[in-house]
Design brief:
692 residues; alpha+beta; Immunoglobulin-like; eight-stranded mixed beta sheet; five-stranded mixed beta sheet; 15% strand; disordered C terminus
Length: 692
């Protein structure tokens, strides 16, 4: 049944984020007149140009909406969704005319707010499929907007539109040349070949200063139809990758193996593994009095279970590029692990007996026959390693970060060194069983200890529930209750029952658990997802502020996005990026005792450092890409990008101290342009707010 739990929970996917706490009272009363009205039309393709879909939004005076390129962390951006059709397809992104008005908003930590007033037109090129008569074609869709006025905001609204064909297409000579205003100035790092999503016509008075680099004539080559220039300087982002890579490869392979061994050894002291380590100590007490060979054999099996999981983690890193602890970003894995740990906790509390000798249990079966066996020791070792992955520690982060970009054989070697380090205390006891004389003698206390550890495992389940998206928490709890009933049904069978009776009990309990899984995740999860979706739709669409404290011990964070990062570095600000995850206990410890302290907050404020928080809880592709650029596949990671030279970030991996962080901030130096709003400073005090 335990193996089946992993299979049943696999299809789950995280579909919903945090729901707002209080959607009521956040919005203005709905006006009687429509604030936003739409008109849409399209022109068919011609021999000279592609077709064009135009959507015109008329906005009531004093009201505004937000652009389709509104950066995250603030108001809700406008979304344009077309209903699927076999008659046409869109060739590119929608472009806005006129371009939105942009201004920094102190209430959103100086975030750039992009708004449209009065009227805005979105255009996108389209291609009508052959055989389709444009005169009969209707292009249908919906525009989701967040209307606001200077005093209040309305709930997000979805406005439907139907676009019909117009006879006269805009001639090519009449078409405005669309250029993204952000592209007017070429960045020193080189121009990125990205399509402009928000553009405006070029005026005759516009100027375009450019940095020109002279190339030697041999770098120019004829490609047959156009000249191409090669050579020159690489963009700064590529240079950043190279500099980080060079820094990582300065450490020798032997040193990395030693770091891995020490990091694995320290993992035994991490809070993630304490529930299972306590049970392993209990098994040492049970082993007292056994032969030296038996003790060594059991500890070898325990270590083998650990090493097998490390080999699997190495394979995930090599073939799927999954980082340390990243499994906890998958909802299905968290649900399955919560189910396994929950059933083990029930076993320790005597509800049922897991039919693996010496694995877990507190009843008569263990008293009669459950001296720890090879399979029980192996499973304990595997579970210990799985529970250890949310934690990181000294040496471990450096060793695992070194494996990024390394050949597979070196990656496997480093992961195995971590596994050997973690297993070394148990191997040592296996070789020298006399060390167990320091443990207490077996007695009645062992049964009480088992039951206490059962409650500890249930506490671990509560922790795992915090990693599951809100829409899946209720279905998961309902599923666990179903497993509780199934385990009770199996456990009620007397020890002396016939094999056929035990088999029937197992079959019926497994069928019941499967039925509960089908109902909870096949039906109840959808109900909860819809309920949370409705809650989100009635909320501010990202405008509310979730406070994390109003004292000197909290930093003010903006959510990480590549766009926000590029804007801050382009403004010559020193940027601190905290790569974290809800399932990373080490991350949360460092945030409480190192990041959110008066010393750190004071250093950040005095140097005008911008702070971004990169949440890796659900394996955000944008955060994953940035981590890989920094040569990491695990969290925690602190990256500080100096204003003077953002291509040489200062990186702190794994655990770090207050002194180390303050030293890194001092080395990075202050922002060149310190323009921080009241959101970052309140009477000289740091304000802790998270902008969602």
């Amino acid at each position: 049944m335990l193996i089946g739990l992993l299979v049943m929970a696999t299809p789950l996917r995280a579909q919903i984020g945090d729901a707002p706490n209080s959607p009521e009272g956040l919005f203005a009363q709905q006006p009687q007149e429509a604030v936003v009205t739409l008109r849409a039309e399209f022109t068919p393709s011609t021999a000279q140009q592609s077709g064009q879909l135009s959507i015109v939004a008329h906005i009531k005076p004093t009201w505004h909406i937000y652009s389709i390129t509104q950066p995250p962390g603030g108001p809700l951006p406008t979304e344009i969704k077309l209903r699927p059709s076999e008659a046409f397809h869109v060739l590119g992104d929608f472009l806005a005319t006129p371009s939105p008005e942009r201004e920094s908003e102190p209430a959103f930590n100086d975030l750039t707010i992009e708004t449209h007033q009065d009227r805005v037109t979105w255009r996108a090129p389209i291609e009508i499929h052959s055989g389709v008569d444009p005169a009969t074609l209707k292009i249908e869709g919906v525009v989701r907007v967040q209307p606001c006025n200077p005093d209040a905001c309305l709930p997000p609204q979805e406005v439907d539109f139907i676009a019909l064909a117009v006879e006269k297409a805009v001639a090519p000579a009449e078409m405005p040349i669309l250029v993204d205003p952000r592209k007017k100035q070429l960045a020193e790092a080189g121009n990125e070949n990205r399509q402009a999503r928000d553009a405006q016509p070029v005026k005759k008075t516009d100027t375009f200063p450019a940095a020109i680099k002279t190339l030697p004539s041999e770098s120019i080559r004829d490609t047959g139809n156009q000249l191409q220039a090669g050579g020159g300087s690489e963009p700064k982002r590529a240079a950043m990758d190279l500099m980080v890579s060079e820094e990582r490869h300065q450490t020798s392979f032997v040193a990395i193996i030693c770091f891995g061994f020490l990091g694995g050894l320290i993992l035994n002291l991490m809070p993630c593994v304490l529930p299972v380590i306590g049970l392993k100590i209990l098994s040492f007490v049970q082993q007292a009095g056994q032969s030296r060979r038996q003790v060594l054999t059991l500890n070898l099996w325990y270590s083998l279970g650990m090493l097998l999981v490390f080999l699997l983690l190495a394979s995930l890193a090599v073939f799927l590029s999954l980082g340390w602890g990243q499994l906890f970003s998958f909802t299905g894995f968290n649900v399955a692990l919560a189910a396994v740990v929950f059933t083990m906790g029930l076993s320790l509390l005597g509800v049922w007996e897991i039919p693996i000798p010496g694995l877990f249990g507190a009843g008569k079966a263990n008293e009669l026959s459950q001296k720890e066996g090879a399979l029980g020791a192996f499973c304990k070792g595997a579970l210990t390693t799985i529970l250890a992955t949310p934690c990181s520690g000294p040496f471990l982060a450096s060793a695992l970060a070194w494996t990024v970009g390394q050949p597979p054989e070196k990656t496997y070697a480093v992961f195995l060194s971590v596994g050997v380090g973690m297993a070394s205390p148990y191997l040592l006891i296996g070789v020298f069983p006399g060390l167990m004389r320091f443990l207490p003698k077996p007695g009645a206390w062992m049964d009480t200890f088992k039951q206490v550890m059962g409650f500890v495992l249930l506490g671990t389940v509560a922790y795992l529930l915090t990693l599951i998206p809100w829409a899946y928490v209720v279905p998961t709890v309902a599923f666990l209750f179903g497993l509780w009933a199934a385990c009770w049904w199996i456990g009620r069978m007397p020890l002396t029952s016939a094999f056929s009776q035990k088999a029937r009990a197992w079959i019926s309990a497994t069928a019941f658990a499967g039925m509960v899984w089908f109902v909870t995740f096949g039906w109840l999860a959808g109900v909860m997802a819809d309920r949370f979706d409705r809650t989100l739709r009635t909320a501010s669409g990202g405008m509310e502020i979730a406070s994390t404290g109003q004292d000197d011990n909290q930093l003010s964070w903006r959510p990480f996005s590549r766009r926000a990062f590029d804007e801050l570095t382009a403004a010559q600000k020193t940027v601190l990026v905290d790569f974290t995850a809800d399932w990373c206990m080490t991350c949360k410890t460092l945030e409480k005792f190192v990041l959110n302290t008066p010393q750190t907050c004071s250093a950040v404020r005095q140097n005008g450092v911008a702070t971004l928080q990169a949440d890796w809880t659900h394996a955000s592709p944008e955060v994953t890409e940035m981590l890989e650029r920094l040569g990491s596949k695990q969290v925690p990671v602190i990256a500080i990008f100096p204003a003077e030279n953002p291509d040489r970030p200062i990186i702190l991996r794994g655990s770090y101290t207050q002194e180390t962080l303050l030293g890194a901030l001092k080395k990075a130096g202050p922002s060149k342009i310190q323009r921080f709003s009241e959101a970052l400073s309140d009477g000289g005090k740091c304000v802790g707010k998270t902008w969602r």
